[in-house]
Design goal:
Layout lengths: L2 E5 L13 E8 L5 E9 L2 E7 L2 E4 L8 E9 L2 E2 L3 E5 L3 E9 L3 E5 L4 E10 L3 E7 L7 E5 L2 E4 L8 E11 L2 E6 L3 E11 L9 E5 L4 E10 L4 E6 L2 E4 L3 E2 L3 E3 L3 E2 L5 E8 L8 E9 L2 E12 L3 H31 L1 H13 L29 E4 L5 H4 L14 E6 L2 E9 L2 E4 L20 E4 L6
Parallel strand pairs: 10-17, 18-27
Antiparallel strand pairs: 1-2, 2-5, 3-4, 3-6, 6-7, 6-8, 9-11, 11-14, 12-13, 12-15, 15-16, 15-17, 17-19, 19-25, 20-21, 20-26, 22-23, 23-25, 24-25, 26-27, 28-32, 29-30, 30-31
Length: 450
């Protein structure tokens, strides 16, 4: 009996109208076998789909999706059937959305919409509310059914269903025609937006405008402003200073704006103002506060703020100055040391001109028997180096040493010993020890205890 096997079975997704299907059924038989393709219509029911070893659809469509069975037969018998499942993928197409194009719901009641789409793989659904005033669509739910509870006038408008699936990694999405939700009920004053205020401020003598947004279906039959014992209906004028404007429709359906204008204000106008809205289904009210400032209050507040700002800047600058001055103490001592280094030391045996500062680095060496230490000014006269007049040989001799071509700085010989002095410590020695400013450093021989 023949033995069959399939070649060309697709491994990826087949998209309707774009891909083709070609499957071959190979039979190993002797004598050669005849091959027949059957298609399953329902469980246990098949029909002939193709005769021959090749099953071909170019392009393939959704009606080609089925289970296909290959059979081979010859004079020796029939092969065992070999089957393959053929799936055809296609993007969504929305078949219905509703239940109706227009749904009416009472204020604070519920409403729902349902969307159906034909797609393979099955579609995913999401809903969005669209606006006619230029705002971006607002996503409001997912799933095949959208359920709205406790609806308000803000939810009144149009909704669309978006169905999508993914074929070979590409998202295919389609949106439905819009369906509308109409909300009817008592008037509702809309919650103020970010740019709106519950308190309106003005300056005495200047005009003021109180505004409030409301929605109502049916349209309000009464809109009035109340303060104290006064009631002013929309479209009326009182004392030529108070004017209640007629309702102005907004871009949002069934929504309006109510305005109370004060052409000029006095201090007594500072109070709460209530707006009352009524229609056949009920009423609503909201209060706004008007604050009237004296003419000098605003400049006073501005001046106080400016003064506080300037004072803060000054305090911060003073703190920064103290911190920077503390960091610069070491730097500020340099001029004092330089001044002390330029002090004249008197000795007739030594006449050395003060050397100019340069950028060379001078190496210092320790003297075994002499050190340099700071001497307090009150001890300078007693410890000042005393000149020995009978001694005819120069007590100091100046030498220059170089190390690899680089000078170490001037050197002096003190009775056969070397004394190294930096350039900013060199001075001219003159007779006697009388000086106006004592030097900060001198030489003495340390005692044996040190």
């Amino acid at each position: 009996a023949p033995e069959t096997r399939l070649v060309g079975v697709p491994t990826g997704q087949l998209e309707e109208g774009r891909d083709q299907l070609e499957i071959r059924c190979l039979a190993d038989a002797n004598p050669p076998a005849s091959i027949l393709w059957r298609r399953t219509k329902s469980p246990g029911v098949t029909e002939v789909a193709s005769i021959g070893e090749t099953l071909l659809f170019s392009p393939i469509y959704r009606n080609h999706a089925a289970v296909y069975i290959c059979e081979a037969a010859n004079t020796e018998g029939e092969s065992s059937p070999v089957s393959v499942q053929v799936s055809v993928n296609y993007p969504p197409t929305i078949s219905s959305v509703g239940p109706d194009r227009l749904t009416t719901a009472l204020l604070f009641s519920g409403a729902s919409f349902e969307c159906n789409a034909d797609a393979m793989p099955p579609a995913e659904y999401r809903w969005a509310q669209i606006f006619t005033d230029g705002r971006m669509p607002l996503e409001c739910g997912t799933g095949q059914r959208l359920i709205l509870t406790n609806v308000t006038y803000e939810q009144q408008g149009q909704y669309i269903c978006l169905a999508s699936n993914k074929i070979n990694g590409n998202v295919r999405e389609v949106k439905s025609d819009p369906v509308s939700l109409q909300v009817v009920g008592a008037p509702r004053v809309v919650k103020p937006a970010i740019t709106e205020k519950f308190v309106v401020a003005t300056t005495e003598g200047n005009p003021a405008k109180l505004e409030i947004r409301l929605c109502s279906d049916p349209k309000p039959r009464l809109v009035a402003w109340e303060w104290g014992s006064t009631r002013l209906h929309a479209g009326e004028v009182l004392e030529s200073r108070y004017r209640a404007l007629d309702l102005e429709p907004l871009a949002v359906e069934d929504c309006y704006i109510a305005v109370l204008e004060l052409t000029s204000t006095v201090k007594e106008d500072q109070r709460l103002y209530h707006v009352i809205v009524e229609n056949d289904r009920g009423s609503d009210r909201r209060a706004l506060m008007l604050r009237v400032d004296e003419p000098g209050q605003i400049p006073l507040v501005i001046g106080a703020v400016a003064g506080f700002t300037v004072l803060s800047v000054l305090v911060m600058g003073f703190v920064c100055f103290l911190r920077s001055d503390r960091c610069c103490v070491a730097r500020n001592t340099v001029p004092a040391l330089q001044q002390a280094s330029n002090t004249m030391i008197e000795d007739p045996r030594l006449a050395v001109d003060t050397m100019e500062r340069n950028n060379q680095q001078y190496a210092s060496e320790k003297r075994p028997n002499h050190v340099l230490k700071p001497v307090p000014s009150q001890q300078y006269q007693q410890e000042c180096y005393q000149h020995d007049p009978p001694h005819q040989q120069q007590h100091y001799q100046r030498h220059h040493h170089h190390h690899h071509g680089q000078p170490h700085g001037p050197q002096y010989t003190l009775q056969g010993e070397q004394l190294f002095l930096k350039p900013d410590r060199l001075a001219t020695l003159k007779p006697h020890c009388k000086i106006e400013k004592p030097p900060q450093y001198t030489t003495f021989k340390p005692s044996s205890n040190n």
